Amino acid sequence: MDIVNLHTAEYEQPPEAVVSAPGIITLMGEYADLCDGYVLTGALERHITVAVSRRKDNSLRFYAADLNERKRTTIPNLKYRREDRWANYLKGVLYEIFRRNYEFKGLNLTLSGTIPQKVGLKSSTAICVATALAIKKLLDLEIADNQLIQAIYFAETSFLQSKARLVDIMSMLYAREGRLLLFDLHSLAYSQVPYHPKDVGLYITNSSIPPFPIREDILYREEESLSAFETLREQQRNGLFRDLGEQDAKALASVLPEERKRFCLHVLEESRRVTDSVRALEQKDYYGFGRIMNRSQESLRDKFEVSCPEIDWLTKRAMELNGCYGSKMIGEGFGGCTITLLDHSSLEAYKQRLGVYEHIFGFHPECFVFYPSDGTGT
After folding, report:
1. How far, in Å, CA of 212 to CA of 118, rounded?
2. Distance between CA atoms of residues 62 and 83, nearest Å
3. 10 Å Cβ neighbour count for 190?
4. Is a pLDDT exceeding 80 seen at residue 214?
5. CB 171 within 8 A of CB 181
6. pTM of the shown model
7. Burial classification of residue 325, based on how many CB atoms lie within 10 Å of its CB (0-12 exposed, 13-18 middle, 19 or more buried)
8. Which of 16, 180, 187, 366 has the most CB within a 10 Å radius?
9. Phi (first) and psi of residue 35, to 5 degrees
10. CA-to-CA distance for 264 and 34, rounded, in angstroms?
11. 319: number of Cβ within 10 Å
């Protein structure tokens, strides 16, 4: 059943607004925000969809169709509750919209989606974006994009106390089919990068490693990197770190302790790899882009140290295949997904490797092709 029928069956009334938001991948530059660098993103053809209708009372009802779970609250009780799990994302958006003096009363909301969760494809942000746009459409709110983006951002960072990135929200709003998005993280300006391959494809593989708490490990690397850049700022008072050449960056970072130096150099190199990737893709230089992907994976593994044995196995075995140009981890690390640039004719051989992966590690991987899709839609 589609979400319209699911919502109608649950609440005995059809939805008045339905909005979908896509998952997002960071193709290159996952941690480049630490140096105000560059990031390359794209929207998936997998979505979170939210349907909403008004109630005659003041109750807020939430229905997760895929889980067959229900939650409820009221506007005065829009508070984070750990036991509400998925509903907290919808509640956070409603709270942020309401506190901006956009009034509403009772609502029915239905949630459904096809984005794999907790693997770095931004499913949580997609819930928030789809909810915000559904409420905007339902109530015909006159709210500017920047205000809407702020509401979504604070729903995640303040209400939910989780990590969020403005570029992920913007990617969901502004993505276009057949286009990647290149962001300047210093100004948040973006441009579109055409992506129209014929004989090759980018294949996302969900490693299916069970999610486990990694926030402290990630936070440690982020804090150490920021401390490293603060130290370097005392030596370089002008310009942006991202603009340093390779040799200048190594020379400047030589004063840092070894671990901080590795983290710092990875962040700077990854930002440069973004602009190198864009040039390669614009020239349809897939060999060149594949080499950049491989260097990124090596750096994520050896310098930033956020890879894991399963991801290392997947990327290494992919590169052993004829017709594979490059393979790397996407997401924050310690699991999640890989993305592999592969001739379409080599896909079956790659899937055989995934069968071996499942036999060795016991996790069933899911593989699907990535092609940039449109952003939010109704």
Report:
1. 9
2. 14
3. 18
4. no
5. yes
6. 0.93
7. buried
8. 180
9. -125, 20
10. 9
11. 16
43 strand-pairing partners: 24
> Could you tell me the maximum CA-CA distance found in the chain, to the nearest angstrom?
67
Mean pLDDT of 317-329: 97
Domains delineated in the chain = 3-25+42-175 (3.30.230.10), 200-370 (3.30.70.890)
Q: Collect all residues with Cβ–Cβ distance below 8 Å to 82 and sequence separation of at least 6.
A: none
| Three-class HEC string of the chain | CCHHHHHHHHHCCCCCEEEEEEEEEEEECCCHHHHCCEEEEEEEEEEEEEEEEECCCCEEEEEECCCCEEEEEEHHHCCCCHHHCCHHHHHHHHHHHHCCCCCCCCEEEEEEECCCCCCCCCHHHHHHHHHHHHHHHHHCCCCCHHHHHHHHHHHHHHHCCCCCCHHHHHHHHHCCCCEEEEEECCCCCEEEEECCCCCEEEEEEECCCCCCCCHHHHHHHHHHHHHHHHHHHCCCCCCCHHHCCHHHHHHHHCCCCHHHHHHHHHHHHHHHHHHHHHHHHHCCCHHHHHHHHHHHHHHHHHCCCCCCHHHHHHHHHHHCCCCEEEEEEECCCCCCEEEEEEEHHHHHHHHHHHHHHHHHHCCCCEEEEECCCCCCEC
Taking alpha carbons only, the member of 300, 292, 378 closest to residue 334 is 300
| Amino acid residing at 53 | S
Euclidean distance between CA atoms 219 and 298, whole angstroms: 21
To the nearest 10°, report the CA torsion of 280, 299, 235, 252.
Answer: -90
Cα separation, 161 vs 152, whole angstroms: 13
**What integer pLDDT is reported at residue 129 of this predicted model?**
97
Per-residue pLDDT, 124:
94
Closest CA to 37 of 211, 308, 229, 287: 229
What is the predicted pLDDT for the residue at 349? 96
**Residues linked to residue 62 through DSSP beta bridges, in sequence order:** 71, 109
Closest CA to 347 of 209, 207, 205: 205
Cα–Cα dist 289/277, whole Å:
6
Whole-angstrom distance, CA of residue 107 vs CA of residue 61: 6
Q: Rounded distance, CA 163 to CA 150, Å?
A: 14
pLDDT at 309: 95
